[in-house]
Specification:
- The protein is α+β, with helices and mostly antiparallel strands and 527 residues long.
- It has one domain (3-523): Creatine Kinase, Chain A, domain 2, CATH 3.30.590.20.
- It is built from 17 helices and 14 strands.
- The strands form four sheets. Strands 1, 2, 3, 4, 5, 11 and 12 form a seven-stranded antiparallel beta sheet that branches. It has a three-stranded antiparallel beta sheet with strand order 6-8-7, with helices on one face. Strands 9-10 form a two-stranded antiparallel sheet.
- Helix 10 crosses helix 12 (401-423).
- It is globular.
Length: 527
């Protein structure tokens, strides 16, 4: 543990400051495919009974019309966040009829690419922009990759923590710049240590054989319909999952917020030859928003993002440049198919301690060699993280995964203890102990348990996943929402449909002009 971390912990553990860590904010976005009664991709439209995917604050779609996304509000207590998420699941299941939510991250057996439905958001210009953006994703990466689901964990430290640390460290930047600098430092440390999350929470060591569409691969055959790697933790996060040749050279620099936003701004305004050859329109129909490396900022596939709540009509880069970083979005978490919501409170409490460790630990700039080492460690763990004696790279030297993991857990344990001291109880320390057990016994990891279940029950990936989906459906349907909770959701559905109708009725101007203005909003930042 660094001296800087020790000083920061000592400051936050003082009686006058101890209450601050009860004010961290947590939010979860959970993606999940809808499947039919046979465990096949549901080709039905997004259920109108769930509201407007364009305007409902908690229930929307991601890439596909079949890919639901549930979004919780930000809450200071992760237990409240998960309670919110559970209510959304229960409401959704009350409207799904004979459909189910697919239990893991890797998709169900998929139909032909052209059959997978792209999400639609109505006839407003913003709704059409969201649709054309997704058409562009299909053109660039194929629809199959876009059907992978995950959990995004949003986390912020209390705003009052930053001036406290800034004064203690005699930092003379503006408060906004200091806060942004500390969040970017958090992200550098996340790059260093996120391999640990993949070992502990990776839950996608196998997939349906049809997912690869006949592409060459180095996976092994578990059965006629299932491919896997024996020591993999998260094939979702490997080069078999989210991948992009155009983005291969785009690794934003995390030295400071300005270099990060500059790299993304450049990517959304620089043409990429293969996309330029395809063009934005074909036979008069839009097929991508532009021909640049990224159509919009969110197209960049990263394990973690600096974020700021945007104003209406504002782009993410604009918000970050104008007002700095407000929170981080952790994007590398697999859905655990053994858990009804894909994540549980024990996992959330450890992730809190892990992200706080990344925020408060010393975080020097990443050299080119260390950057490559971070990527190597992450990709090695997602493909062979449970391999006995696995060696990672630290400071140019080899170190055993188990040894390094235990060292990190020792340091993260200091944050777990501080969180318990702040919140009362011992739940964070208990959550840490559960992760220590996984390091000591690899069979306790979700990825090992998935493979064990497949082999013990002689099930294909699809059979196991659908069985879990059915079990989760029974869990949610066994305890319906209260009349009051149900009424609140029904009102939010009604309001979202009214909001979409109003947006469509009130807009002015044609779609081509709207897209041009959207593109210009980024080019205007190039000063």
């Amino acid at each position: 543990m660094s001296d800087l971390l020790s000083r920061r912990l000592a400051l936050l553990s003082k009686p006058a400051h101890l209450n601050l860590l009860t004010q961290c904010l947590h939010g979860i976005e959970r993606e999940c495919l809808r499947v039919d009664s046979q465990g096949q991709l549901a080709l039905t439209p997004h259920p109108i009974a769930l509201g407007s995917a364009l305007t409902h604050p908690q229930i929307t779609t991601d890439y596909s019309e079949s890919l639901l996304e549930f979004i919780t509000p930000a809450e200071p207590d992760p237990a409240a966040t998960l309670a919110d998420l559970e209510q959304i699941h229960r409401f959704a299941y009350s409207k799904l009829d004979n459909e189910y939510l697919w239990s893991p991250s890797m998709p169900c057996p998929l139909p032909e690419e052209e059959v997978i439905p792209i999400a639609r958001y109505g006839n407003s210009n913003i709704g059409r922009l969201k649709y054309v953006y997704r058409k562009g994703l299909a053109l660039r990466y194929g629809k199959t990759m876009q059907c992978i689901a995950g959990i995004h964990y949003n986390f912020s430290l209390p705003e009052a923590v930053w001036p406290l640390l800034q004064v203690a460290e005699d930092d003379t930047q503006s408060p906004r710049d200091y806060q942004s600098e500390r969040y970017i430092a958090l992200i550098r440390n996340f790059r260093r240590y996120s391999w640990l999350l993949m070992y502990l929470f990776g839950a996608s060591p196998a997939l349906d054989a049809g997912f690869l569409r006949g592409r060459p691969h180095k996976l092994q055959q578990l059965d006629d319909h299932t491919l896997y790697l024996p020591y993999a933790t998260s094939l979702r996060m490997s080069d078999l999952g989210y991948q992009s040749n155009a983005q291969a050279g785009l690794t934003p620099c995390y030295d400071d917020l300005a270099s990060y936003t500059d790299s993304l701004r450049c990517a959304v305004s620089t043409p990429y030859p293969a996309y330029a050859e395809a063009g934005t329109k074909k036979d008069g129909e839009w097929q991508q928003l532009n021909t640049n490396i990224l159509q919009i900022e969110n197209e960049y596939y990263s394990n973690i993002r600096p974020k700021r709540v945007t104003y209406s009509g504002e782009r993410p880069i604009q918000a970050l440049m104008a007002r700095g970083v407000q929170y981080v979005e952790v994007r590398c978490l697999d859905i655990n198919p053994f858990l009804p919501m894909g994540i549980d409170l024990e996992s959330a409490r450890f992730i809190d301690a892990f992200v706080l460790f990344c925020a408060l630990q010393d975080s020097p700039y990443l050299s080119s060699n260390e950057c490559h080492g971070c990527t190597y460690n992450f990709l090695t763990v997602v493909k062979e993280g449970r391999k006995p004696g696995l060696q990672l790279q630290r400071n140019g030297l080899g170190i055993g995964l188990q040894e390094w993991a235990n060292e990190l857990l020792d340091s993260i344990g200091k944050l777990s203890a501080l969180l318990d001291q702040s919140n009362g109880g011992d739940q964070h320390v208990q959550a840490l102990a559960a992760q220590r057990a996984k390091v000591a016994d690899v069979t306790l990891t979700p990825s090992a348990q998935v493979l064990s279940a497949l082999q013990a029950n002689k099930q294909t990936f699809a059979e196991f996943s659908f069985q879990q989906s059915q079990a989760h459906a029974a869990y949610f349907r066994s305890t319906p929402l209260s009349a009051e909770q149900s009424a609140q959701f029904e009102e939010s559905v009604k309001q979202s449909l009214a909001d979409q109708a109003a947006t469509e009725a009130e807009q002015s101007g044609d779609f081509d002009t709207f897209v041009a203005a959207y593109q210009a909003s980024i080019l205007a930042l190039a000063v």
